[in-house]
Design brief:
This is Allophanate hydrolase subunit 1. GO terms for molecular function: ATP binding; hydrolase activity. InterPro entries: CT_C_D (IPR003833), Cyclophilin-like_dom_sf (IPR029000), PxpB (IPR010016). Pfam families: CT_C_D. Keywords: ATP-binding, Hydrolase, Nucleotide-binding. By secondary structure, the chain is α+β, with helices and mostly antiparallel strands. It has 2 domains: about 80 residues, 2-Layer Sandwich (Gyrase A, domain 2), CATH 3.30.1360; about 150 residues, Cyclophilin-like (Cyclophilin, Beta Barrel), CATH 2.40.100. Helices cover about 25% and strands about 30% of the residues. The protein is built from 5 helices and 14 strands. The strands form 3 sheets. Strands 5, 6, 7, 9, 10, 12, 13 and 14 form an 8-stranded mixed sheet that branches. Strand 3 and strand 4 form a beta hairpin. Helix 1 crosses helix 2.
Length: about 250
């Protein structure tokens, strides 16, 4: 593992960089430090923003100096044993995401199947077989960048991105999968759609999940999709969540 670096980001930002590659272990360390800083009750810490391999910490320099923040981060890393990267057990929340695959909701499902010499049903079976770690949220509000997708269904992005992708569309781009919480342009191969809201600007809890959670997709029929959508619109639907035992 690369040595952890502490980089300046303007007069109110500190970047803690854990490595120069994308992998699950590095990302879990990012989230471990994010949680530790968020719960440290240290005056002057304004916000923590986890990414694939680094953590951006916004702070108030009138309350907390950069050097003091670096010392605190190092103390928390040492206390957690993060620098030595031990194998420790942890818990993760798994949010279950219903998806109606194919048809008008998944116009690229057949292409993904053909590209990988699979049937559409085999693509769906592989896509729903494991929980995916939410590495980070970005691009649009609540867009989850997920790790852990099987290379068996990896597919290149569209050569020409779509101008408009409906909210809830589930896609694949290279070795990543995710879904669009809001309508937006995009170049991912669309294989299905979820009826849930990944982002709701009018809710007191606008995001259905957080970076560091896991998502597991579940295939549903069109009738089930419509029924869940009615519950969502009535404010009566809460995605199922379970607890995942993992080893970091």
């Amino acid at each position: 593992m690369s040595e952890i670096q502490f980089l300046q980001a303007g007069d109110q930002g500190l970047v803690v960089e854990f490595g120069n590659e994308i992998n699950a272990q590095i990302n879990r360390r990012v989230h471990s430090l994010a949680r530790s800083l968020s719960t440290s009750n240290q005056a002057g810490i304004l916000e923590v923003v986890p990414t694939y391999r680094s953590l951006l910490v916004y702070f108030d320099p009138l309350q907390l100096s950069r050097s003091a923040l670096v010392r605190l981060a190092k103390e928390l890393l040492d206390a957690a044993g993060t620098v030595q990267a031990p194998q420790v057990e942890g818990m993760g929340r798994v949010v279950h995401i219903p998806v109606c695959y194919g048809g008008e909701f998944g116009p690229d499902l057949d292409f993904v199947a053909q590209h990988n010499d699979l049937s559409p049903d085999e693509v769906i079976a592989i896509h729903t077989s494991v929980p995916y770690q939410v590495y980070m949220l970005g691009f649009t509000p609540g867009f989850p960048y997920l790790g852990g997708m099987s290379e068996k269904i990896a597919t290149p992005r569209l050569e020409k991105p779509r101008v408009r992708i409906p909210a809830g569309s589930v896609g694949i781009a290279g070795s990543q999968t995710g879904f669009y919480p809001v309508e937006s342009p995009g170049g991912w191969q669309l294989i299905g759609r979820t009826p849930i809201n990944g982002f709701d600007a009018h809710s007191s809890r606008p995001f259905a999940f957080a970076a560091g959670d896991y998502l597991q997709f579940k295939a549903v029929t069109l009738d089930e999709f419509s029924a869940i959508r009615r519950e969502v619109e009535a404010g009566a639907y809460t995605p199922e969540s379970t607890v995942l035992q993992r080893r970091d």
